[in-house]
Amino acid sequence: MPDELLNRKMVEKEFFASAENLCSLYGISFERPDGLIYPKNVASVFNELKQKIGAIDGELTLNLMSWEGRTASLATLKRYDTGMTLFYLPVEPLHRLLQDKARKETAELLLSVCAYLFQIAGVSYHTEDSSYLNYVYTMVEEWSIEPECFETEIEQEQFLEEVAYMKNASEKLFSKINGPQNLNALTKRYTTYQPLNETETALKNIAERICTLRQNHPDRSIMDSIYHDSFSMEIEGESIISADQYISFFWSSFDCLYDQLMESVNAELNEIGGIDEPLSIQFFDSPQGTVNHDLSFEKEFFDLLHEISDNLNSFEHEKHHTITG
What we know:
The chain has twelve helices and seven strands. It has helices at residues 3-26, 40-56, 92-98, 104-121, 132-144, 153-177, 180-184, 186-192, 198-216, 243-246, 258-269, 296-320; strands at 60-67, 70-79, 87-90, 240-241, 247-250, 274-275, 279-283.
């Protein structure tokens, strides 16, 4: 049998078998296009089923996929909408708290929260060689150290000193955030922590939610449901925004590189047409007993990122808006 005919037979067999499995789960049917030849018969049924699935659940999309030896099987996808938000978490507030012996318990609890985000949940860190923000920081630093950017040599020296401090402090903090002892201490630190103000109370609530999330989804990372560019809403010929481009730690909103950092990030990402977002995928190469599109982890994770971002900004606000006598 010629390869072309063999491939056609395989595609038709796998496609229509998966279509039957899909229809069985959702209680729908399709008309056999006996008058159409391959590949129009497959395309006709696919379009019919795509419309019917969309009518049942507007958040579902139907895809025809090849994977793990399968040539053409159906799968439903449900995407978690991140709202095209930059989830950038400043670590300078944590660094400052760790220097304050009077706030040791607060600093250690916040450190354990950040350790979970980096070690388990998949948030990238801005000094990692592979991270997107490391690349952007390096680029804007190189732009900014040119002599013509400064009015005096003293101003340039102060700038270089601040950049060197940021780098050194970020690296030292990374070794703590990456330390397994700080992740392992999360539950104990949360349990014994006694907040003294609104910001600290918010931190304890965040830690409690993280402990619950970790209990319900042990070792689950947001990257487990991000399939890189495999199913991204990509415009043909354009790149996509990867997860580490919008989920990351960074140094501070008040340092000498921040404005240029965000200007560069926004300029680049605004030109990109698609984004890697979390997906729930259900394959129909075999019969399915129930609809399985659970995005509860993703929802709680991104809700927590909003809360953690606000909390870190509140701690950062303390330093930069404290009135001293």
